[in-house]
From TrEMBL:
<keyword id="KW-0057">Aromatic amino acid biosynthesis</keyword>
<keyword id="KW-0963">Cytoplasm</keyword>
<feature type="domain" description="Prephenate dehydratase">
    <location>
        <begin position="98"/>
        <end position="274"/>
    </location>
</feature>
<dbReference type="Pfam" id="PF01842">
    <property type="entry name" value="ACT"/>
</dbReference>
<keyword id="KW-0456">Lyase</keyword>
<dbReference type="Pfam" id="PF00800">
    <property type="entry name" value="PDT"/>
</dbReference>
<dbReference type="InterPro" id="IPR002701">
    <property type="entry name" value="CM_II_prokaryot"/>
</dbReference>
<dbReference type="InterPro" id="IPR002912">
    <property type="entry name" value="ACT_dom"/>
</dbReference>
<keyword id="KW-0028">Amino-acid biosynthesis</keyword>
<dbReference type="InterPro" id="IPR008242">
    <property type="entry name" value="Chor_mutase/pphenate_deHydtase"/>
</dbReference>
<comment type="function">
    <text>Catalyzes the Claisen rearrangement of chorismate to prephenate and the decarboxylation/dehydration of prephenate to phenylpyruvate.</text>
</comment>
<keyword id="KW-0584">Phenylalanine biosynthesis</keyword>
<keyword id="KW-0511">Multifunctional enzyme</keyword>
<dbReference type="InterPro" id="IPR001086">
    <property type="entry name" value="Preph_deHydtase"/>
</dbReference>
<feature type="domain" description="Chorismate mutase">
    <location>
        <begin position="5"/>
        <end position="98"/>
    </location>
</feature>
<comment type="pathway">
    <text>Metabolic intermediate biosynthesis; prephenate biosynthesis; prephenate from chorismate: step 1/1.</text>
</comment>
<dbReference type="InterPro" id="IPR018528">
    <property type="entry name" value="Preph_deHydtase_CS"/>
</dbReference>
Length: 367
C-alpha cells in the first residue's frame, strides 16, 4: 500500500467515525427536544396561562456546566455557544421567545439579543430605547434588549433614564465585543469619499483611527450603525462605520476592519422583563437609589457595601427629575438580593436614603 493509499484509508476511517458521532449527536438532540416538549406539557397541564418557559437562571446554569465539562479542543465559549443554540431551538418548541431590541436590523443590539437568546428567538427591532421598554411593559414581547454601557464611551443615559419610571426588572446581561468596520457600497468611489456615517458613539470609539486615515472627512452621526449602512446605497462619495452583520445585510464591502481605537472595546447590554429571577449561583444586582445632595451622602451609601465585603462593579449618578437637590445613583454589585448578607445590607442602605429600588438580580453574563 502506498503512502497515498494509507492516507486515504485513514481519512475514510475518520470520516466513518465522524458520521457515527454525528448520528449519535442528532439522536441525543432529538431526545433533548422531546424532553423540552414534555416540560411544556407539564407547565401547561393545569391550564395556567402565565406559565414561564424561559428561565434565565436555569439557562445560565446549563451554560456554565457545559463550560465546566468541556475538555477541548473547542474553547469554553464555543462550547457554550453550541449549547445556547440547542437550548434556543428546544425552547422554541415550548414557546418561541419574543424579544424587542433597539434596531434597526444589523445593530450591535440585535447581535446581543441573538447571542443571549439564540437564533430561534423572534427578535423584533424598535427605533428607540423607550419603545423597547413600552413593548415589554405592554406584554407585546417577553423581553427587551437595550445597551447600558460601553467600555470606551461610558453609560447609555437613555437606558438609565427609562428605569426611573419603569417597573420592569433586569433579567440578564450580555457582554459583546464590539468591532467596527469601514464599509462602502458597490457604487462608492473609494478615492472620493467626502463623508462618513455612523452612530455618534461609534464615531467616538474610532476617533483616533479616523483622525489618522480620514482627517478632513465630514463625520455625520445617525441613529444607528445599521442606519449608516443603509444610507450608503446610491451614495458614490460616502462610507459608513458598521458591524459585519450590517455589512452583510445591506450587501456592502468592508475596506478596513477593526478600526476601533481600543482593541478590547465592548458594550454591555441588559435584558429587561417583568419577572423576578431566582439565584443562579453567580449573580449581579442593580439598584436605583435616590439621595439628597449633601456632604457625605455617597460615603453613607457605599460604606455598608464595603463593610459587608460586597463587590461594587459600577456606581453611576444621574440628576433626578423630581427635585433640584436630589440625585439618583445606579449601583451594580456582585450577589443576589435574596442572599442573606446582601439582604441585610440593602435593608441598612434603605433606612438611610430617600428611596431604594431593586432593578433586578440576574445571572452574570456567561459568554
Amino acid at each position: 500500500m502506498t503512502d497515498s493509499d494509507a492516507q486515504q484509508a485513514a481519512l475514510l476511517a475518520l470520516r466513518d467515525k465522524i458520521d457515527g458521532i454525528d448520528a449519535e449527536i442528532g439522536r441525543l438532540i432529538s431526545e433533548r427536544a422531546q424532553c423540552a416538549q414534555r416540560v411544556a406539557d407539564v407547565k401547561t397541564a393545569a391550564g395556567a396561562t402565565d406559565a414561564v418557559f424561559y428561565r434565565p437562571e436555569r439557562e445560565a446554569q446549563v451554560l456554565r456546566k457545559a463550560m465546566e465539562r468541556n475538555s477541548g479542543p473547542l474553547s469554553d465559549e464555543e462550547m457554550a455557544r453550541l449549547f445556547r443554540e440547542i437550548m434556543s431551538a428546544c425552547l422554541a418548541l415550548e414557546q418561541p421567545v419574543k424579544v424587542a431590541y433597539l434596531g434597526p436590523e444589523g445593530t450591535f443590539t440585535q447581535q446581543a439579543a441573538l447571542k443571549h437568546f439564540g437564533q430561534s428567538a423572534v427578535a423584533l427591532p424598535f427605533s428607540a430605547i423607550d419603545e423597547v421598554f413600552r413593548e415589554v411593559e405592554a406584554g407585546a414581547v417577553n423581553y427587551g434588549v437595550v445597551p447600558v454601557e460601553n467600555s470606551t464611551e461610558g453609560v447609555v443615559s437613555h437606558t438609565l433614564d427609562n428605569f426611573m419610571n419603569s417597573n420592569l426588572k433586569i433579567c440578564g446581561e450580555v457582554e459583546l465585543r464590539v468591532h467596527h468596520n469601514l464599509v462602502v457600497s458597490d457604487v462608492t468611489n473609494v478615492d472620493s469619499i467626502t463623508r462618513i456615517y455612523s452612530h455618534g458613539q461609534s464615531l467616538a470609539q474610532c476617533r483616533k483611527w479616523l483622525d489618522s486615515h480620514y482627517p478632513n472627512i465630514e463625520r455625520i452621526a445617525v441613529s444607528s450603525n445599521a442606519e449608516a449602512a443603509r444610507r450608503l446605497k446610491g451614495e458614490w462619495n460616502a462610507a459608513a462605520i458598521a458591524p459585519l452583520k450590517a455589512a452583510e445585510l445591506y450587501d456592502l464591502r468592508i475596506i478596513a476592519e477593526k478600526i476601533e481605537d481600543q482593541p478590547d472595546n465592548s458594550t454591555r447590554f441588559l435584558i429587561i422583563g417583568a419577572q423576578e429571577v431566582p439565584s443562579s449561583g453567580k449573580d449581579k444586582t442593580s439598584l436605583l437609589v435616590a439621595m439628597r445632595n449633601q456632604p457625605g451622602a455617597l460615603h453613607s451609601l457605599l460604606e455598608p457595601f464595603h463593610r459587608n465585603s460586597i463587590d461594587l462593579t459600577r456606581v453611576e449618578s444621574r440628576p433626578s427629575r423630581s427635585g433640584v437637590w436630589t440625585y439618583v445613583f445606579f449601583v451594580d454589585f456582585t450577589g443576589h438580593k435574596d442572599d442573606a448578607r446582601v439582604s441585610e445590607t440593602l435593608a441598612e442602605v434603605a433606612s438611610q436614603v430617600a428611596d431604594l429600588k431593586v432593578l433586578g438580580s440576574y445571572p452574570k453574563a456567561v459568554l
